[in-house]
Amino acid sequence: MLIVSAHWESAPLSLSATGPGTPLVYDFGGFAQRYFQMTYERPDAGALAARGAASMPDSEPVHQHASRGLDHGAWVPLKTMYSYGDVPVLKTS
Q: Which residue ranges does the record assign to the Extradiol ring-cleavage dioxygenase class III enzyme subunit B domain (predicted)?
């Protein structure tokens, strides 16, 4: 699954980290500590990232952001929609 969200904007076009175990981004504040301890494990999305990058024109470089995990705009709804965390997922800016 490729997620496009207003929670992350950058140039050039970027894809989030694809590996399992990449830390989540807790880009919110003022909530109980338990929300900052939530996790969402997911399988490797390297093949998905390669397909996404290959589909872009050669004139549009795609940056692979090696350390950017999923932010709450992605992992919060995914915890409900795909609670088993068995769907490869990454984000694009």
A: 2-91
